[in-house]
Amino acid sequence: MKFFLFHCWGGDGKSCWSGWLKEQSRVQCPVSSVLNPDFPETNSPKLEKWLAKTRSLVPRFDSSDNWVLVGHSLGCPTILRLLETFDERERAACIILVAGFAKDLGIPEIRNFVDRDFDWEKIKKKAGKIIIINSDNDPYIELAEAKRMQKLLGAELIVEHGAGHINEGAGFTEYPHLLEIIRALAGEKKAK
Fold first, then answer.
1. What is the pTM of this model?
2. What is 2-191's CATH topology?
3. Residues 6 or more apart from 173 whose CB is under 8 A from it?
4. CB–CB of 74/47 below 8 Å?
5. CA–CA separation, 17 vs 191, rounded Å?
6. Degrees, nearest 5: CA angle 123-135-84
């Protein structure tokens, strides 16, 4: 398995629980690679630049590599847009969208990530398992958005109770529950 972590708007590869997850996944999961880059111009992000950064690190997400793509907040529409670019030989084994969204939240700085419809059918074809994790009291993203995405993607939805935006402001500098989910995925892959 290989992991690619996509951080949030205004964040970096160590924001929230990302740095912690990178280290823990190396220790506790059978992974061959964990990528956790700092995306460019994080305070005024541009989708094209975030996708270019991704492709500079991984030109092809070969299906045999068992890629697990994990996004937090703005990292989630980034993953969805990335999957839309996959060719016939590319596929992610799993995507995990934490505090994710796929609609305009009324924030001009990040609108370019969600300013057109998503190709939901292609996204579903290019991702094996899809897990959505949202909180029931996120101040930025209503749980209804997670439920909408769940329906469109045929995803598994996990609701964290009282977890806010699942970020540092909500006390998440570590995220053991997410690590448990990833360890279970690794176990599934190992059993196959």
1. 0.95
2. Rossmann fold (3.40.50)
3. 16, 17, 20
4. no
5. 28
6. 10
